[in-house]
Design a protein that fits this description.
three-stranded parallel β-sheet; globular
Length: about 100
């Protein structure tokens, strides 16, 4: 399946990523955020997922890393912490 709001052959332009990720968030059962700055496309996707009542999962990382500030903030706001694959499977009720 190819699903897009853009016509065929549209190049992968940075400004189109949030629109693409809105579709992905809506189709997903949960969204796993691996790395995110305080203002990032990953957080935009997480917000779209929340709007669609999807579960947000996040991998914690160093408090000193700029690319972890958004991810760690999601955890503080209630995202499920993922430290092993089992955490994801449990969230999806697979095990």
């Amino acid at each position: 399946l190819v699903l897009s709001e853009f016509p065929p052959l549209t190049p992968p332009l940075k400004q189109n990523f949030p629109q693409r990720n809105r579709i992905i968030a809506g189709l997903a059962s949960a969204v796993l955020i691996v790395e995110a700055k305080e203002k990032s496309g990953s957080l935009i996707t997480a917000n779209y997922a929340l709007d669609c009542n999807r579960e947000i999962l996040a991998i914690p990382n160093s408090i000193y890393s700029e690319t972890s500030k958004g991810t760690n903030a999601l955890i503080k706001q209630g995202a499920k912490i993922v430290t092993e694959s089992k955490d994801i499977l449990e969230s999806l009720d697979i095990i």
